[in-house]
Backbone:
């Protein structure tokens, strides 16, 4: 099974997987608007890979088969300020005055 992977300039780490190059028919309009102009990253032969970076292979195949696309969101960013406050024994959110 092949799929085309696109990135967006609007959000680093967000990727859109579709079953064929330039096949966006099943992608909802609201998602297309949010994603912006897709930039082709690569065409991937899913079956040739045991694992995929940052994507559950079974979920990807299921989404492509059932919905016609898969949206990979960027990993959640760590809240470094909250971690630092916790390491100092302070509440993780500052008091609001």
Residues:
């Amino acid at each position: 099974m092949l799929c085309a992977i696109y990135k967006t300039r609007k959000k680093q780490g967000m990727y859109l997987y579709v079953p064929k190059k330039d096949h966006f028919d099943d992608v909802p309009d609201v998602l297309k608007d949010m994603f912006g102009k897709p930039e082709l990253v690569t065409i991937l032969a899913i079956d040739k890979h045991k694992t995929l970076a940052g994507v559950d292979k079974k979920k990807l195949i299921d989404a492509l088969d059932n919905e016609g696309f898969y949206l990979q969101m960027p990993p959640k960013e760590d809240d470094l300020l909250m971690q630092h406050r916790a390491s100092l024994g302070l509440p993780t959110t500052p008091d609001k005055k």
About this structure: Strands lie at 2-7, 15-18, 39-45, 70-72. The domain at 2-87 is CATH 3.10.510.20 (NE1680-like fold). The longest helix spans residues 57-66.
